[in-house]
Amino acid sequence: MPIGYSKSGIPCWKFRNPQNANFLKSQFQKEHKVNVGRKHSKKSRHKMSLSKLKEKNPMYGKKYSEETKKKEKHKK
């Protein structure tokens, strides 16, 4: 097995709390000349969650019109 891999062939940094994962990751990058980074950036994940919220609730993120505000006051 090349350095940075477990016996089963899974890269060590895939585990949650591996021992010296950063070292193994950097070694792997040096050997194979690749960048092992996130699949999704934090921003793109945030955008995805926002779009899902908007699908569930079409009013999400929109300013309420005066009429809807009045209706909500009556409900209370």
From TrEMBL:
Pfam families membership: NUMOD3
Start-end of Basic and acidic residues biased regions: 52-70
SUPFAM superfamilies registered for this protein in UniProt: DNA-binding domain of intron-encoded endonucleases
Compositional bias of kind Basic residues: 35-49
Region annotation (Disordered) ranges: 25-76
Residue ranges constituting the Nuclease associated modular domain according to the UniProt record: 37-71
GO MF assignments: DNA binding
Name under which the protein is recorded: Nuclease associated modular domain-containing protein
